[in-house]
UniProtKB/TrEMBL annotation:
Organism per entry: Candidatus Harrisonbacteria bacterium RIFCSPHIGHO2_12_FULL_48_16
Protein name (database record): Nmd3 N-terminal domain-containing protein
Length: 176
């Protein structure tokens, strides 16, 4: 885990869309992630305990690993975008877009994360690298792919869902 994920944010987070199945949702108490210090209370994950009332801060504390850290630890992902044939002139802008977009998503919801951004230039190619982006949430990958399509005119994409019982989405974007 990079320091990026350890940083605490003092922001008022909207209620996460994710109801927790694992923690018996709504049970009184506070659950902290050992890896990223995200806090689970009131049925969702938060960056910190700023949203708790004073008396609630005396609640019993349990330690666990949050779903996002667990997924990263298991080398799993829910969203993967393969971006192909990226011209050198577009690389900086695309890198900024991906990191910025995922960072803002993470600020809103500690479970929304960029896991990895892997770059490679296939042998024999002078220009046109291939990148693979993995995220903890399929919706994050979907929205990011849409953002990339909006930002760059000469791209086409296709989306594939792995299907039940998996939530994994695989998206391919190709620069032409
Ligand atoms: Zn965590």
């Amino acid at each position: 885990m990079s320091n990026f994920f350890r940083k605490a944010y003092n922001v008022n987070l909207p209620k996460s869309k994710r109801e927790s199945e694992e923690f018996g949702g709504g049970k009184k108490g506070l659950v902290l992630c050992k890896k990223c210090t995200s806090a689970y209370y009131k049925k969702s994950w938060h960056h910190d305990i700023a949203g708790l009332k004073n008396y609630e801060k005396d609640w019993p504390v349990h330690f666990t690993v949050c779903p996002a850290c667990q997924m990263i630890h298991n080398k799993q992902y829910e969203g993967r975008i393969k971006i192909k044939n990226i011209p050198v002139v577009s690389e900086d802008r695309l890198d900024d877009l991906i990191r910025g977009f995922c960072h803002r998503a993470f600020e809103r919801d500690p479970l929304d994360r960029l896991i990895n951004l892997e770059k490679s230039l296939p042998a024999g190619r002078q220009d046109g690298s291939d990148w693979t982006v993995t995220t903890t949430e399929n919706q994050l990958a979907n929205k990011l792919a849409k953002k990339i399509k909006d930002a760059f005119s000469k791209v086409k994409s296709k989306t594939k869902f792995a299907g039940d019982p998996s939530d994994v989405v695989e998206i391919t974007i190709e620069f032409s």
